[in-house]
């Protein structure tokens, strides 16, 4: 099959990374794959170095090329200890960061401040406009200012990259800017006013600007920054394809700008004015960001080829597709993320179906057969991760001055045990339930003296959490619903099964779900208990599950007839995310999906959405994938593995787990990290939520041409597609390269799919066919004599870490009986949320995604 054309864009990943963050939040192996980091200094790169707030400022941007919709890391030294903002001033000794699209014609190599997405928060020190004394007005700001009686009203207009017909209004001289000013007794019609912050292009809910990034006592700091493309911000237009003479396309570049702010603005003792005013703007640092072109230029008119199943492979496929997008006789691919079990069951038939991506063997009961007909080709190694953005809020009475000095700075390390993960999945912390709802079932009279012992409000207040984490966590007074649980994706998935299996493999966590005390007085929310004697309906929760049920029927009652607010149930209080990738995206933005204020005026009345928390006050935990956490540069927790070690989801941790995988009992061609097996107890460096992803298809499907297309995709994935990096065709951060034996198995399976028959387990070919010669892709091993490798002790690729260490002893805690064989709980709260994201650009770009809940 020649000319395979692949066009897969997953809106949850492309167009839009996990990495474990220490002082430098990206794992070293992943940083090595990204060679476009840039360091800027005030001395060499500021527009005006003299008089800058931080003369020795040095800022490093983790990535400046191959940009998509993602996160990057901005780290700096040479600052000064920061003070947090409040309602009256913007803080002290901090940085502001924004994305801009246009170059300043008067200052080449620096962005035009009018093109910066800045001011959406409407807060002191970060507006686009305001009043200023005439004597403090810089000459560069005069054309955007007007004398309004002894002082100036000044506003830096926003000019969008696609603003034909709007530029005149927004890039207006003083008389137009004055239209946005209302003096006492002067009323301006709304259609004459240009709201410079909440315009039609961005608002507080969509802007990616960082209005306060603080430094510690040593003057250093580090924050992630959300990079937006034209898909998220049409006004910036970053990544919009620009055709080249050779028929290729490049993405429209943009700028990242860093504005240092000191302790006060010109003539005033505090930071209260815009960072776009020239006295602050002239000290900015900036770097140009090079974007991948949005969409993939493929031949249009061919029939779509379908892929279905695991979200874990989406980022890799998105990277591989441009390398496969060549030739004349291909077709665009569409990846439908959803239940892997459903995708595998469909791929097991003989009628043409999407190529399935799965991490578990086919459920034979689902197809009513005793034989598994699928060919399993390993194509990726990724994992599930818990990611977080939690900024310090020390107890004001703490006796440690270092803790007080770090107020507002982010935590970069967290350790979790299986039982702590279980607590985040079961709405067992008090703040996980709606305010003013009945929470009596989260408290117990343990001593029989009438005093109720309540479960902790959040994980940060949990004695078990504090015992295993840095002592600084114990000095925090952080509260909030979004750290009382984790943002969880809707729908069924292998990722959900793996996370529940991780919990159940631990005796302490299993006993806790069964109703036992955690040793500190905390009990499971009874609606989630696996013990029918504890669960209120007498039906224990059946685990492992393929989803994350909102099982507690608790509600805050409807009080609208009394002038109060409407009903709140567990879904409206703690909503699902549409995907694992969105979990990392929300964490990057500090958005815990907190329920907003009640809005009685709309019909019908409703709750609004809260604005995201900004740096200095972020508090959110989310479930995501390792590729998404790496893409968005969010911090991930280290999990305790069966060897008793806390391991982070780095590339090395994933590779070590892959090396410790063994065949599943049901299907020896599918490997698993057996959480209860002896092998993993010696794999001290392995990350326990590592998952393989297999491309699976019945070779006896009737469409021979389609089978050839799928076979070529597998061959590309396991050969050209296994080189780590961020460039087109490379394996993105968050994945581990396939070991050599996995590649061998994948190539044999690709041949089997194209040939139309599976090889026999011990060798030979049941169909007796030597297979058709390849018309594309690398040479195949002789299919008539090459059995599919079934590695029992999986050998990693050269350079990949092996599972190491002596076998660990039994984990702490006594063994408990196996979970009862009970049916699924009848959830009283609706839990199904359909979610879909469609990303598209005009022909000749092909860019699509479909997700099934």
In short:
With 853 residues, the protein is an alpha+beta fold. The chain has 19 helices and 34 strands. It folds into two domains: 1-33 and 297-498 and 615-811, no CATH class; 37-289, no CATH class.
The count of domains is 2
Q: Please state the average pLDDT score.
A: 82
CA radius of gyration is 28 Å
Percent strand: 15-25%
What fraction, in percent, of the residue positions are helical? 10-25%
Weakly predicted, low-confidence segments: 1-34, 164-193, 762-853
Number of strands: 34
Largest sheet: 8 strands, mixed
Report on the structure:
The protein is an alpha+beta fold. It has 19 helices and 34 strands. Strands 15, 16, 17, 18, 26, 27, 32 and 34 form an 8-stranded mixed beta sheet that branches. It has a 4-stranded antiparallel beta sheet with strand order 1-2-3-9. Strands 8-4-12-13 form a 4-stranded antiparallel beta sheet, with no helix packed on it. Helix 10 (418-425) crosses helix 12 (494-504), helix 15 (580-589) packs parallel to helix 16 and helix 18 runs antiparallel to helix 19. The relative contact order is 0.15.
């Amino acid at each position: 099959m020649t000319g395979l054309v692949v066009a897969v864009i997953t809106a949850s990943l492309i167009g839009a990374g996990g990495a474990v963050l220490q002082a430098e939040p990206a794992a070293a192996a992943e940083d090595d794959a990204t060679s476009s980091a840039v360091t800027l200094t005030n001395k060499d790169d500021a527009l005006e170095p003299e008089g800058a707030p931080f003369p020795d400022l040095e800022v490093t941007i983790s990535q400046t090329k191959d940009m998509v919709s993602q996160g990057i890391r901005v780290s700096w030294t040479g600052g000064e200890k920061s003070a947090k903002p409040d309602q009256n001033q913007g803080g002290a000794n901090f940085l502001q960061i924004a994305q801009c699209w246009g170059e300043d014609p008067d200052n080449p190599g620096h962005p035009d401040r009018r093109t910066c997405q800045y001011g959406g928060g409407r807060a002191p020190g970060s507006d686009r406009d305001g009043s200023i004394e005439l004597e403090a007005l810089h000459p560069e700001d005069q054309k955007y200012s007007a004398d309004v009686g002894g002082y100036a009203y000044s506003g830096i207009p926003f000019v969008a990259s696609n603003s034909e017909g709007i530029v005149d209004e927004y890039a207006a001289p003083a008389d137009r800017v004055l239209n946005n000013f209302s003096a006492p007794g002067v009323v301006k019609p709304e259609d004459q006013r240009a709201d410079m912050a909440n315009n039609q292009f961005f608002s507080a809910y969509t802007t990616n600007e960082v209005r306060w990034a603080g430094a510690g006592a040593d003057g250093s700091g580090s924050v992630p920054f959300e990079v937006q493309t034209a898909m998220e911000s049409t006004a910036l237009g970053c990544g919009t394809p620009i055709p080249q003479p050779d028929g290729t396309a490049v993405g429209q570049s943009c700028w990242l700008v860093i504005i240092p702010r000191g302790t006060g603005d010109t003539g005033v003792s505090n930071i209260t004015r815009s960072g776009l005013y020239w006295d602050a703007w002239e000290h900015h640092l900036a770097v140009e960001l090079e974007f991948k072109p949005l969409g993939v230029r493929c031949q249009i008119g061919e029939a779509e080829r379908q892929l279905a199943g695991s979200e874990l492979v989406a980022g890799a496929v998105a990277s591989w597709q441009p390398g496969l997008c060549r030739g004349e006789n291909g077709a665009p691919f569409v990846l439908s993320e959803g239940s892997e079990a459903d995708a595998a069951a469909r791929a097991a038939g003989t009628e043409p179906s999407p190529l399935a991506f799965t991490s578990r063997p086919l459920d034979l009961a689902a197809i009513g057969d005793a034989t598994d007909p699928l060919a399993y080709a390993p194509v990726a190694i990724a994992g599930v991760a818990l990611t977080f953005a939690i900024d310090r809020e020390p107890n004001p009475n703490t006796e440690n001055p270092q803790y007080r000095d770090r107020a507002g700075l982010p935590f970069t390390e967290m350790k979790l045990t299986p039982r702590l993960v279980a607590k985040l999945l079961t709405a067992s912390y008090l703040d996980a339930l709606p305010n003013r709802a009945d929470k009596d079932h989260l408290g117990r009279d343990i001593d029989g003296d009438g005093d109720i012992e309540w479960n902790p409000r959040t994980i940060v207040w949990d004695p078990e959490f504090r015992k295993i984490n840095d002592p600084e966590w114990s000095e925090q007074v952080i509260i909030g619903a979004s750290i009382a649980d984790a943002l969880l994706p809707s729908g069924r998935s292998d990722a959900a099964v793996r996370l529940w299996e991780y919990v159940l493999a631990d005796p302490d966590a299993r006993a806790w779900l069964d109703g036992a005390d955690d040793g500190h007085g905390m009990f499971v929310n009874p609606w989630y208990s696996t013990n029918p004697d504890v669960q209120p309906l007498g039906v224990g929760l059946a685990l492992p599950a393929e989803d994350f049920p909102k099982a507690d029927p608790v509600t805050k009652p409807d009080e609208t007839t009394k002038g109060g607010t409407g009903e709140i149930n567990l879904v409206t209080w703690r909503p699902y995310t549409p995907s694992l990738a969105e979990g990392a995206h929300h964490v990057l933005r500090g958005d815990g999906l907190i329920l907003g204020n009640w809005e009685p005026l709309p019909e019908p009345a409703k709750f609004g959405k809260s604005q995201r928390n900004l740096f200095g006050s972020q508090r959110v935990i989310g479930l995501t994938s390792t590729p998404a956490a790496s893409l968005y540069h969010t911090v991930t927790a280290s999990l305790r593995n069966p060897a008793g070690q806390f391991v982070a989801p780095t590339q090395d941790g994933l590779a070590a787990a892959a090396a410790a995988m063994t065949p599943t009992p049901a299907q020896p061609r599918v490997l698993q990290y057996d959480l209860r097996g002896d092998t993993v107890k010696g794999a001290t460096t392995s990350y326990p939520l590592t998952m393989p992803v297999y491309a699976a298809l019945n070779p006896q499907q009737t469409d021979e041409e389609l089978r050839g297309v799928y076979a070529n995709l597998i061959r590309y994935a396991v050969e050209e597609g296994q080189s780590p990096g961020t460039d087109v065709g490379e394996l993105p951060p968050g994945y581990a390269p396939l070991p050599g034996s996995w590649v061998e198995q994948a190539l044999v399976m690709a041949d089997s799919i194209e040939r139309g028959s599976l090889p026999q387990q011990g060798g030979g070919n049941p169909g007796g066919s030597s297979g058709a010669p390849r018309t594309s892709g690398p040479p195949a091993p002789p299919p008539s004599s090459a059995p599919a490798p079934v590695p029992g002790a999986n050998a990693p690729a050269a350079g990949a870490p092996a599972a190491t260490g002596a076998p660990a002893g039994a984990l702490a805690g006594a063994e408990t009986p196996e979970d009862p064989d009970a049916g699924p709980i009848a959830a009283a709260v609706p839990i199904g949320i359909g979610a879909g994201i469609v990303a598209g650009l005009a022909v000749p770009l092909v860019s699509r995604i479909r997700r099934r809940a």
